[in-house]
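Readers of this paper often ask what the protein records in our data store actually look like. Such a record has a labelled line for the sequence and another for the backbone structure tokens. Nothing more is needed to write down the fold, since each code stands for a local backbone conformation. The remainder of this section carries one protein's record, kept here as part of the documentation.
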Amino acid sequence: MDEFSVSSREEDGQEFLKCARSEKLPTSDHLRRSVLSGSISELSQIVHNLGIKDKKVLLDHLAKVADQDNDKFLSKIKSRLDRVGMELPTIEIRYEHLNVEAEATVGSKSLPTFTNFTLGIFMSILNGLHLLPNRKKHLTILNDVSGVIKPGRMTLLLGPPSSGKTTLLLALAGRLDPNLKVSGRVTYNGHDMHEFIPQKTSAYVSQHDVHMGELTVRETLAFAARVQGVGSLQDMLEELSRREEAASIIPDPDIDDFMKASATEGLASIVVTDYVLKILGLEGCADTLVGNEMIRGISGGQKKRVTTGEILVGPVRAMFMDEISTGLDSSTTFQIVNSLKHQNHILNRTTIISLLQPAPETYDLFDDIILLSDGQIAYQGPCENVLEFFEHMGFKCPDRKGVADYLQEVTSKKDQKQYWARRDHAYRFITTKEFAEAFKSFHIGRKIGDELSIPYDRSKSHPTALATKKYGIGNKELLKANFAREFLLMKRNSFVYIFKLTQILIMALLTMTVFFRTRMHRNTIQDGWIFMGALFFTLITIMFKGMSEIPMTIAKLPVFYKQRNMFFYPPWIYSIPPWILKIPITFLEVGIWVSLTYYDVGFDPNFGRLIRFYVLLVAINQMASALFRFIAATGRNMIVANTFGSFVLLSIFALGGFILSPDYIKKWWKWAYWVSPMMYGQNAIVINEFLAHSWSHVTSLLLLQ
């Protein structure tokens, strides 16, 4: 029997019999069974209940040393599929005559000042009406680039800064800014971008590391794995089990366990997360907070690996990685790229990695290279032919010079001359445009041109290669994942909520001394104004309790925008958990305030009015929290949010009906009075108090006047 049909544990007859009995189960039951060496679990154990100890045994057996065993482990998975004739989905990406252009202001007008912002709005309107000429500078980022990205081959994107590498990756991933002018065509297996969802089919790994600092490395990757789902792995495993059963093949129990666990949606502790932690070398800091400017956490290089890991835990088949070596030493970069190479070659993924100055040993891991300079492709093809092309152009790489460094300098006007090898010809600077034109006549360029001239046979595309669903899992599971993460963040930020409770306790004690009931009478209208002041002070205290939402919301916005653009979840699912989970805190805060101040101040003693007063304050607090979250989401940074928020709060207070009486508000400002949410809350608590029986004689006195 082939070495991959049974494990080395075959000598243990009891384990082998367990595997054989498991194979006789119906497919739907079989997929959720797990047999682990050294575990007391029987066949009835469900993969959903895979414990930490069992998971550790499985991982240790699969890959004790990731950089040595990873290749062998992936080969076992591929061999299992090959034995029953199953093919993994592959993606071939083509881009033809791709042009990306932009218009931007230059000089002092490009500075982000209030004057430039205001003038920019008016200028855009006038330009749209063709009343003024467009004075923005036209910039060409990518100029007529074409090429093919093959699956199963590692592609290096090389070029100097500002050459258009990030724009090319974004264009291939379908994530370009809509304000850019784009022409040309990008296809996946012959399908245009509008025929599928490129954001779920491919993944763009940004050069910026944006994470929630309060979460650990393991929690960050586990959340990413949970919301991205398992893609088509479940269907693939069902088909694989049916074929193996028909061929009477007993799979390797270790590989079978891993594939079952990684293909089961809703698994609490996803095995793939620990596997990615191992291959990225993050096991040592897996339970360390990621950290940010205010929280001590992992290093910059480790954050870069976490950014890469967020994509590796998902089911995407095409990856575009932008400057993943920033902050990493050459050894760590080599290990990461080597792990990606194993996955790419064995699992036939499509991978493009942009690196600025890769070490020679890292460069040797790549199969193909795209040399980009000044928005044009000087060379694209196998790495072994790149030196041949430039020697054909008259440039030779010195023996002791790294190929990657040579390629970045040979297109530079400042460094090109030193590599000129044709001594019988006078040197002249050869532009990137000339390199691009010469490459089209080079045998590699002609081969790419001939391939692009023949349309891709769409019938060869695997049915599950291109994603057609916007999100990896259902809305219910997405809500559960976001609720779990938000609850964890609230526990990590528990000091904020403890401080808020302490703050409202202190303010309640101060209110009890200022508005003490022995000095609060109900004899005249002036006494009513004193009670009115106490109610207004209660109102603003409860409202300002929501101001902490501004910095807490702004701190999480970058992560939200990144994960929203990657289609981790829709915005409405992200916004619900913070609101729901903070309602109990609102009940507690308002409960402390009302229990201490209501009877001490001397409000109407009727219990029904007490309950209404409590409910109204809860509603006011929820309104204020929502208002401050809206201000934070609109402003997007602390300066704008505080400026805009101050204006909104002053308007609400001034036109709320207490500071300025409605009778004195001008007619053209009446709309602001009715829009002010503070007005409705204030009128509600005032009516609740002054329509009570204890104020009936004062009301009669007012009517007589």
About this structure: The first strand starts at residue 93 and ends at 104.
